[in-house]
Amino acid sequence: MSIKAVILAAGKGTRMRSSKPKVLHEIGGIPLLQHVLNTVKQMDDAEALVIYGHGGDQVIETIDHDGEWVEQREQRGTGHAVQQALPFVDTDDTVLILYGDVPLIQQETLNKVLHHGKNNEVGLLIFNMDDPTGYGRVICDHNGNVQKIVEQKDATDHELQCQSINSGIMSVPGGKLHQWLTDLKPNNVQGEYYLTDIIHMAVKDGVKVNTESVMDEAEITGVNDKMQLAQLERAYQQRCAEQLMQQGVTLLDPQRFDLRGCITDLGQDVCIDVNVILEGKVLIGQHVRIGANCIIKNSTIGDHVEILPNSVIEDAEVGANCVIGPFARLRPGTVLGEKVKIGNFVETKNVNINAASKVNHLSYIGDATIGANVNVGAGTITCNYDGANKHHTTIKDGAFIGSDTQLVAPVVVGENATIAAGSTITRDAPDAQLTLSRVHQFSKDNWKRPKKKS
Q1: Global pTM value
Q2: Smallest Cα–Cα separation from 170: which of 136, 131, 204?
Q3: What does R_g of the chain's alpha carbons equal in angstroms?
Q4: Are 370 and 354 in contact (CB under 8 A)?
Q5: Catalytic status, residue 392
C-alpha cells in the first residue's frame, strides 16, 4: 500500500498574535509542522506532501522536508486545501489527511486509522468529549454507522447533543478522493469547501466509514492560540518524562523537566534533578547526575559525570568522571578530558582541557589548550582578544597557575611551570620554573583617607 500523507499547513493562525506562521511555533523546541513530519517519517511506505500558504518562504526554509511542497494560494477551506494535492495522488494510493498544527499525533494511532481504511474504505479518527462545543460532530445512525460530519455552526440542536467529535484525521482511497473532492460544493455558512463533506459522499456511495477512537485528547488537539500551545507543551513534556523514566532515568520531579530536542544516546542510572532543560541533541553516558536548574544543549556528557546545580553547557564534550559546577558555564568548543574539574563561576570557550586538570574558581579560560594535571587558580583569565583578533594560550602538563593571573595570548606556559599569584604573563614561561611579574609594593606614611565634603 502506497501512503500519501497530505499535511495541511497553510493557515495564518491569527489568534496566535504573531508574525511567525502558526506551524513554526514550537513544542519541545521543535516546530509544530516538524513534529507531524517526523511522525510520518517513522511510517513504512509513507510519503508526505505539505500544503503551505501563509509565510510559505519562511516555512520552507525552516522545516526539514525533502518531499513535495504544494502551495494553497487562497485559503478556501480544508477541502480546497486537499484539492491542491490531487495532482500528486494516484488512484491506487491511500491518502492520510493530517494537520500541521496538530503536533502530538502518534504513529501507532495513524497505523490504526490506516488499517480501518483498507479494502477501499474510509478510516476516521474520532474522540468522545464531555463538552464537544466548537468541534464538528460525527453523526451516526441507530446502528452506529457513520452518516456524516456536521460542523458546529451548521449543526441542528439535536446534532449538537452528539459527543463524538471529528479529529479531522482520516485515511481515504485515492481514487475515491479524486471523485469526491471534484464534487465538493461550498454549501455552508462559511462558504468554504469542507473536507468533512466527503464522509456524507462516502455513505451515499456505499463506502463504509470505519472509526477509531483516540484515548489521549492531546493527540488530536490543534494549536490555535498561545494558551493551547502552552497546554500541549506540558502534555509533550509529560510524555517525554514518562518515556525517559521507562528507560530507567530517575527524574526527581517529572513535572519540572523539559526536553527541547532529543537525547541521542542514554546510559543507565542517570539521575536528573528539578528544572533541568535539555536542548538540541544531547548524549548522556552511564551513572550521570545532573543537578537542579541546569541547561545542557547539543553536548556529550561522559560516564560518571556530575553536573552541579545552575550550570550551563552548550556545544561541549565532557569526558568521563568530570565534575562541573555549581554555576559553571561551558561555552561552544569546550572539550574536557577525563576527571577534569570545572568549579563555581568558571567560564570556558573553545578550550581543550586534558585529564585531571582543575579550574576551580572564578576564572575565564577561552581559546586555550590545557594539558593534563594542570591547576588553574582562582580569578585566572586568558586574555584572548586584542580588540580585533583572537589568540591562543597553551598551558602544558603539570603547570600550576596562581590565583589572579592574566595570561595575555598568544602565550605558552611550559611543562611543570609555576606562575606566581597576581602575575600578568605576556611572554612564554619556561618549563619547571617559577615565573612572576609584580609591581613593586610600597607603603605611604602620613596618608589620610579622603572624606566626603559637607
Answers
A1: 0.90
A2: 136
A3: 31
A4: yes
A5: no
Cβ neighbours of residue 282 closer than 8 Å, sequence gap 6 or more: 261, 262, 263, 264, 296, 297, 298, 299, 300, 301
Q: What are the grid coordinates assigned to 379, written together? A: 580569578
Q: Are 399 and 416 in contact (CB under 8 A)?
A: yes
Strand partners, 320: none
CA distance 308 to 100: 39
Q: CB–CB of 297/279 below 8 Å? A: yes
- Give the C-alpha separation, 138 to 148, whole Å: 6
Q: Cα–Cα–Cα angle for 152, 154, 157, nearest 5°?
A: 75
CB of 246 closer than 8 Å to CB of 238: no
Mean pLDDT of successive 10-residue segments in the chain (454 residues)? 92 92 97 98 94 94 95 90 95 96 97 90 94 90 89 88 93 96 84 89 94 95 96 97 97 97 96 98 98 98 98 98 98 98 98 98 98 98 95 98 97 98 96 93 88 85
Q: Of residues 178, 287, 361, 392, which has the active-site annotation? A: 361
Which of the 8 DSSP states describes residue 160?
Answer: G
In whole angstroms, what is the distance from residue 118 CA to residue 402 CA?
75
CB neighbour list of residue 109: distance below 8 Å, 6 or more residues apart:
125, 212, 214, 219
C-alpha distances (whole Å) from 79 to each of 25, 106, 148, 178 are 24, 23, 15, 11
In Å, what is the CA distance from 112 to each residue of 95, 126, 149, 214, 289? 14, 12, 20, 10, 39
Contacts of 36 (CB under 8 A, 6+ apart): 7, 98, 99, 100, 102, 103, 105
